[in-house]
## 1
Amino acid sequence: MAGPGSRVFISHLSGIAVFDPNGDQVGRIRDVVVSLRIGGRPPRVLGLVVEVVGRRRIFLPMTRVTSLESGQVLTTGVINMRRFEQRPSETLVLAELLDRTVTWTKTGAEVTVLDVAMVQTRVREWEISKVFVQAGKVSRLRKAKGETLTLDWSAVSGFALIEEGQGAANLLATFDQLRPADLANVMHHLSPKRRAEVAAALDDDRLADVLEELPEDDQVEIIGKLKDERAADVLEAMDPDDAADLLSDLPEEAAERLLRLMEPEDAASVRRLLSYEENTAGGLMTTEPIVLEPDATVAEALARVRVSDNKPALAAQVYVCRPPNETPTGKYLGTVHFQRLLREPPYTLVGSLVDDDLDPLPPDTPLQLVTSYLAAYNMVAAPVVDEADHLLGAVTVDDVLDHLLPEDWREAALHGGEAHESEARGGR
């Protein structure tokens, strides 16, 4: 355990592993809970917010922490797995204090909070002791805009105020390595104000990836707080099927306004998807499968499959069609699966390898039949073709699962399953 006087910067705790007395990993730290105190007294550190299996967030009191060293946290005793619920008297350091503009009382200058440090007192309690700040504005890349210095907590003021336009540079830097689904989990647990600040600070592609992992209510809230031009750019960066799902949850007038602001080609794909019933192959499909002409080689096909932006289910096969190659394509000829591509010489033409034994799905195929099709033939994706044999898109197993699970499955996953009331802080 770090001894009395040992200083620990909070941002360095983000994401580190927490282990129980048996040495088994419990989860990872996502935030630190403190209680602000009056009279300039340093905030008391109450405990840690730990994300466990299933993305459930639990509260780990500091009294249960036996070691806070070497990039890991060790605990003692039984850990309560009830879901963490923040109380009005509590403040989350990473979510609410970073990026805040406060006043250095000695000079009256405004400074931006980059980090805060906690220290263990002689009575073995933890409290916030230092504030690492920077003069002037801070960019998303943390480029220096002014002097940085470490101040005593008592040397700054403004933490008790509710700040508008707080920004999110340092919060995002703390969570920079998270997968989109994990960053979505972080954003879901923020206040609406803080969530909007984080969304504003993310670039279009990153925000698009995160939106696809959020519950519908969060998606609608975030897109509604963006300026229309920015919202249209983010929708363009989303997968067309996800963009269509989001637009279908907006009021018709708002959805049409955003569609008009999107690039015509992107808007056309989304409009096509919106024209199909939601629980059909047409409503489920993506309009951006990997399409090749029959005279393309295996080497070209593998190069397309290797593109990192391709989702695994879409990269499992290529669709061979006559030109044009954009959906709706020319005549659909068949599918070549990734494993077959690996077995063939690189100069082989994909037109000679097509599997045309399975009939493609019409766009009006209901969800139940789409599910049966994928299960019966052990497929992770299936082509969707119209009456004139034009490839319209592909249905992937992840999109099917999205629609088979309960409507609130994302929110349930972000809460780690069934909600439980958090136990009292003081008596554990």
## 2
Amino acid sequence: MTAAASVLLVSDHVEGAVHVLSVPDGTLIGRLTGRHLSEHAGFLALPGGRVACVDDRRGELLVLDPFGDDLVALTVPVAVPGEHLACDPAGRRLAVTTGLGDNTEPWSDLLTVVDLATGEAARVRTRIGEPGVTVLGGGDPLVVLRHREPGALAVHRFADLLAAPPGCPVATPHALLPLPDDGHGDAQDPGAGRVFAATGTGVHTARREGDALVAGPVIPWESPARGWYLRLDTRGRALWTTLRGGPADPLRWPEWTNQAWRHDLGTGHTLRTELGPGLVFRLALSRNHTAFSRVHPDGDELVLLGADDSLRRVPLPAMDGAPRRGGTPWEGVQRRAVAASRGADWVAVTRGGHGEVHLLDAETGGEVSRPRLETPLHHGGHVMLLSRNDGAEGDTVGR
């Protein structure tokens, strides 16, 4: 068992490697090979410092124990390619949806549910698309799928899905709640039994009532831009995202605008902070800061937004193969991934194509180590920073 107070999981999903580093020194303490994790489904924190993820090549749900003696604690077959991953507030019941994978159009309608306590799993058919997912607790757990075109929140009883017979039968939703067609981004507030879905008009809210959902008020973006994902701050009971605006043409990505968006679920207050132009992807929450990596032809940086609303900008070394003017920021280019833990001040940001991870102190913006891995971290890889007892399992959606 590692004695490290914090660990960093680094996945190179193209090369098929998972590295475990101690933080902040960056020492390699564990490694898996032949594991091509779904970057889109991401990492899902579970109770006890464990982490769930999806191996897209082997078709397995992995439960990792980076603080334990054996890194792989459990494997369960699931349908792939993994699109979204979520669990109930107890961290026992999981759901995995399928998406495009290496295809141009959605083609799979398979959903897998897993009970980690018993090892049982079942696969059913739902609707072709790229559904988001949350798993609600309270009484009998519910699986809520967020569909697009037509938009809807489809509610299924977890027990019904798990009891499905072999052969991947069609699962009919127990209840439906309409949504706009452009939903993308999901979160759950476990304590309140509320779910959230990001759309062009704002964040649609719903609460559990029996075995169905009741629509709540829409939280507006208060901006001409919109968020494309949602993240729950487990300590502050707030929703976070990045609002992306500007031209719709991806070839003009250097002109995209970006704002940090924070909505306090207790007070209803919303705060927006300008981050700068270019590509800002996912965000990460440290003890006192929210971290964003910003990619731009004029120079990349890590942006640290403090709890006191202060901004610190830390320049990052350029990436070979970075997105260029006149091209898109998605196809055949390198990117960056960022990670942090609410239980520590460390922030990790990758340098795609170089196999490097910058580990920084968010309080000072100073780099404390720069481990170089044995794989290049294509597309920036994917990272998760965990600290002991940091409460990360309070966010029940894979990141």
## 3
Amino acid sequence: MSEKYLVRIIKNELFNFKNVDYGEIRYMNYSSVEKKAKIEKNDIVGLYGQNGSGKTALVEALAILKYILAGKEIPYQPYEGLLSSQRSTKIVTVFYIEHGQNQYKAQYEVELCADNIEQKINLISEKLIYWQRGATWKTQRDLEFRNPYYDTSSILDDIPVSFRSENFKGLKDDIITKRLRNLAVYCAQKKLSVFFNRLMLYKLADGDPTLRNVMWGLADFGSLYFQVVKVNQLADINRNTILPVNVHTENNSLVMQECLPLVMGGQGKISENMYMQLKEAVRGINIALKAIIPDLSIELRPVNEEPDKEGNKEIRVEVYSVRSGKEFLTRYESEGIKRIISLLSYLISLYNYPEICLVVDELDSGIFEYLLGEILGVLNEEAKGQLIFTSHNLRAFEKLNIKNIVCTTTNPENRYIRLVGKEKNHNPRDFYIRTITIGGQKEELYDEADLQSIGYAFRRACDIKKPEMKLHFSDNFRKKLEGSAVEAERNYSELNPYRL
């Protein structure tokens, strides 16, 4: 393969997204990138906080970002309710990019709105600010584009469009400005980013090398190295239909990122290509699985082969767990083990490749507390990639530095903070719980409810009187009911002659 891009998310900002009016998170290498243009620290960050306080909002925003960078349409159904209907919703992300001996920094801003009539997500405006590292980051360039063609009447009116830039004087002569109107119409119809789509990226091949490396680096990152595992995968696991296996594999000529469905409900048919991918993924998973769950391995067993309607080979398979010489269908494993199997291939890649960024919502779901802590401890010490996760299990406080933890607050205008004031002799877990109960931070972390009030509310909820229901029958219908009751009593007496 040609020289790869190393991309690292160093900051996120959310504006009017779900229950976050404003929130900012700076990741572990933000300061080292700003000062030295280097990745110096292991990059594990966990989000903690009460239910409904903005943890999943960040995960959803990152999932939207992945769609954009990968040049894909943002699906309407999962996200339309997360975007503000009254104010603009904006996601801002700052990246560090390495390519060969060159270092870049990029800030990408996107403004979104939901079109409830067409049931589409529109990318109303985009802005890309980028720097190439010299002695400092002082050389700044920027591109901004607001797409008017989501309104079809604008196409007929032939409204002129152009990139706006404050720092890039040579932009008007650059190849990306040619036929920009056609590109804008195409992106509005396809609901794609003007920056990150295959037409734009191919046009950059002969353009400004700094802009090319920044945009190609971010596009490769979104397509190949950036994976967001949302909580809806837990529903697939719990339904016992499929086990989503999040896979990243690469060799000298190919990089692949997929979520492969491991059949759980007995036998299932998959394509020959998917079978080969799953077989290779299972081989890697088993090596790591035995270190986490002793004596456990999984087997993907082919039952038979048959062609599909197009004549392509399909393989009918079963998935078994093998433990201490006993085997059974993997569908009967616990939720925690299935969760580990689902994530393990990507955790292996995170451990080995610095290009990987893995985002997991509710990482702790179903996983034994001690085991979760051990996995996080190993990753924090040795993983080369970036892990962003949400969790409710406080074991992470004992295995990570307090700087690795971001806490959500009760203030929607300042949703994310790091804890301050922890002394060396403080137990991190106890320090967090004490902070929740007695405060001491810039923002409140928990909207503490009076436990007696909760008990009182529970009692009241049970004591509510059910409304009386009165039924009114006609005289004819009442006579029929009475006649049926008499006949039923007579039949019962005939069948039970010895009853008292």
